[in-house]
Amino acid sequence: MHRCPRVLVPAMLIVAAAVLAVPAPLRAQQKLLTLNDIYDPETKVDFSGTPPSGLVWVDDAHYLWPKPTKVDAKTERFEWLKVEAATGRTEPFFDAAKMEAAIAKLPGMRQDEARRLAHERSYRMNPKRTAIVLTIEDDLYYYEFGSDTITRLTFTPSEEHDISFSPDGRLVAFVRDHNLSLVDVATQHERALTTDGNDHLLNGELDWVYQEEIYGRGNFRAYAWSPDSSWIAFLQLNEKPVPAFTVVDHIPYRQDLERAPYPKAGDPNPLVKIGVVRVTGGTPRWMDNEKYGAIEFLIVHFTWTDDSRSLVYQVQNREQTWLDLDFADPTAGSAKTVLHETTRAWVDRNDDPEWLKDGSFLWLSERTGWKHIYHYKADGTLVKQVTDGKWEVRDLHGVDEATGWVYFSGTERSPIGSDVYRVKLDGTRLARLSKADGSHRAQFDPSFAAYLDSWSDVTTPTQVRLHKADGSEVRVIDDNKVPALAQYKLAKPEFLQVKTRDGFVMEAMIIKPPDFDASKKYPVYQQTYGGPHSQQVRNAWGGATYMYHQLLAEKGIVVWICDNRTASGKGAESTWQVYKNFGELELRDIEDGLSYLKQQSWVDPSRIGINGWSFGGFMVSYALTHSSSFAMGIAGGSVTDWRDYDSIYTERYMAMPQNNQEGYRKSAPRAAAKNLHGHLLLIHGTMDDNVHMQNTIQFAYELQEAGKPFRLMVYPKSRHGVTDPLLVKHMRELMLDFVLENLKPERASVRVSSRLQRAPSCVEPGGPGTVPGASKPSDAT
Q1: How does residue 607 score in pLDDT terms, banded at 50, 70 and 90?
Q2: Which in 249, 274, 433, 543 has the greatest CB count within 10 A?
Q3: Catalytic-labelled residue, pool 365, 439, 614, 778
Q4: Sign of the dihedral defined by the CA atoms of residues 659, 663, 668, 673, in that order
Q5: Which of 409, 688, 737, 778 is catalytic?
Q6: Which SS3 state, helix, strand or coil, does residue 314 take?
Q7: Domain 483-758 adopts which CATH fold?
Q8: Any catalytic annotation for residue 2?
Q9: Is 720 a catalytic residue?
Q10: pLDDT reported for residue 71
Q11: Residue 742: pLDDT band with limits 50, 70, 90
Q12: In the CATH scheme, what is the code of domain 367-479?
């Protein structure tokens, strides 16, 4: 073999040549994340891309898309497009210029405001999608697409809210001054359907606890049109028995006080009844619920049968250990129970039944410990259990009766993903329609011939595709390429399973540093939430939180997410074990996950931290007062005593304090403050109207009484989630500094920001220098 003569080359030239030899794309991947990349409102990088959102089918061949356009850094305008689903061909859905001109003719209307109203992200449309209702200076205006004029419908100083069209499009219903009213769009004639509403008596609108814990956050509407547009069913809530809670805005020179009814666990709930009223007016008729006697109950859902002959509603006892599905005659008010659900713990409320043409219906139930589909006759006689198995049905999309297919989403393939399925109405021929691993969200067209699929996995931001009903792909609507992701040195997350001491299989995800070296010892940062049915380990794109975890990994920290059994999404049976005793089982599972980690040679067991918000903040507070496993914890928006949280959520899992005094005592971190281990940072929004800051203040007081050092940061004008972009950045800087200070990763330079050292709201009750070192209970922040 011919040998080249030996030549000595300066080391710097070798390094330079090596760098130049690396292709440009690979060199770009060496970029490291910064907090500014993720959270700075001026310079943050778009890591999630801009997949089309707000898509809604308008018929079997077309969907609508409110396409956004950036006007400036803070303003977007939307162009509404009608899209031919199969080809992607677009046309304007309405003439925005004509709409703007019509609005601009209104007295005192500014041109820029008219332009904004003509380019909104969402509108209240009539069922035919030919007209909308706009709110302008607290009054309602009707606009028919293509018209040169806009019609004013209401003429009062009071605000109208919870607005909707009747199914036939002739009427618009709304709530004003706690009363239900409607107006005729052709004549502008207005009619009040109730007149007794006041600050304590709410007609057709929900109070805070009903919308937060039952009907869905932000949804205060408490009425439902009959399909034939002749009736409106509504709830009446009497809040007079409910104690009020005061939330304070400290920023104005004269404090702003918000005082609102808030039933804590064990407090009186709002009294509820359900009634119907004809759209032509008259006295409301209340449904007869005398069979429940003196039992305090909740009405947790209501709708109509397709023929408008029956009002259908779900009733639960206060502690939610059973659920009745009741059918009522709107003309007589008489009601009968056609289904009665129970479990060995609590029963979760259900969505509307899925009606079939013969009057039968599909119903979701967790009675076996796993949510599945059941087919019932109109009288409540079971026809067939349609799906079965140790997996969950998550969403029932509907039935194509012409073909006999039932379409739904579920976890048959994987508990950490979501797939689209179909099955015959008789329970045969179950088929998974989605192909790629990950999380799929389906929107079917009206005839169930096709569906839009929004898909992502843990490393891929959301993509949108069109599929036929058999799952075959028609076209890629948007593959949402995000070039920025390729520029950073990101680690590949790993999914794994860990058994608890009693054999339950927990799902986990780990993100190791991108330059991971198994011969080193690494600190661990655990992200947790822990509440019932609240998975954190999901094969889905995680947005800014995922990028923050990548940043921690780049700093030399192993990020660990492990769902305890009650949070696992593995059926109701996995959650029932926590009944009446929050904290103990969840922590045991968390520590079993840590036991697995501690067996790994590259984990430093003395440097393990934990972070969580809302229920996760409770879990951090509970862990640091009931375990010595953690060097540090960050508890945000925490429940520290379940007697402080709202009645409907808390009593579902803990029963009433009057019936479970020991369970409440054992589950309260504030009661165990003297046992604090590790360095603790408490964070709370001062205007949190969900998990009140009272929780953190009570905990802080008990820690001070016990002589335990900790740190505290409050965020003014922030509620249960910190949302102001500048405050979010401040909070993440604070959290990162605290993590680096207390976990001390070897490859990270420990930087304690000057802000953290001197901010007056960052308190160390044990004295200066004594500390060396984001959900709400029903959903994660």
Answers
A1: very high
A2: 274
A3: 614
A4: positive
A5: 688
A6: strand
A7: Rossmann fold (3.40.50)
A8: no
A9: yes
A10: 83
A11: very high
A12: 2.120.10.30
